[in-house]
User: What shape does this take?
Amino acid sequence: TMAHANGGFANTWPPASGPRQQNPHMHLLEAALALFDTTGDEADAALAHDLVDLFRTRLFDPATGTLGEFFTGSWQPVAGPQGALVEPGHQYEWVWLLHEYARLTGRPTGAHAQSLFAFGRRHGVDPRTALGRDVLTRQGDIVRGGARLWAQTEGLRAEIAMHGLPQDPPHADNADNTVQIARIVDNLLGRYFTDCPPGTWNDQLDPACRPAGDKIPASSFYHIVAGYAELDRLAGGSAGESAMRIA
Assistant: This one.
């Protein structure tokens, strides 16, 4: 019902005015991969193949190694500043998805994942604090310099996905995966999960790394669980025991 004549899907049903977005396609790919992982039926992989093709041909900009957010009906970046926006958290989310797609289907995605990851490492992370930035331009200029929690957990998933893989080019100006993973976890425990009511979190830090805002979106819990699951997998299942001791 929501399929679009120019590829991909409508953001809402009934269709609403406004630009087309990559975000729902990203989450649809995640669902398609989970379905295929569950059934093993090649018919269930077809949607994932289509969505990765859409990423390669429409959503991804090879000149800058970035993922667009807002598009016209024919999948061109919308005019003006909105068409040049990049969210490092989404870049990292796609790194993990592309690795998961390659794992499940055997189809290589390393070059695209590496391009997204390299841009994120170069522009999307504050080298002083290791915090993932909120919004940039395709040239890496900061549009919104705060740090949402969900972007940190997606950075964690991307770092784990790239853990142990050769980087091209090598990130001589940045920490290796092991160090970066540890810095992200330290940020989560020390900046986001402290100085807040038990069972909650600081969802947003301002550019000075101070908690900002008075809301805790429920969507962030999904990102926390997704990041934790990858950390637990990397730790061989020991992360759960460690978290219980910390709690």
Remarks:
- The domain at 20-246 is CATH 1.50.10.10 (Glycosyltransferase).
- The longest strand covers residues 135-137.
- The helical segments are 23-39, 42-59, 88-105, 110-123, 149-161, 177-192, 219-234, 238-246.
- The chain has one domain: 20-246.
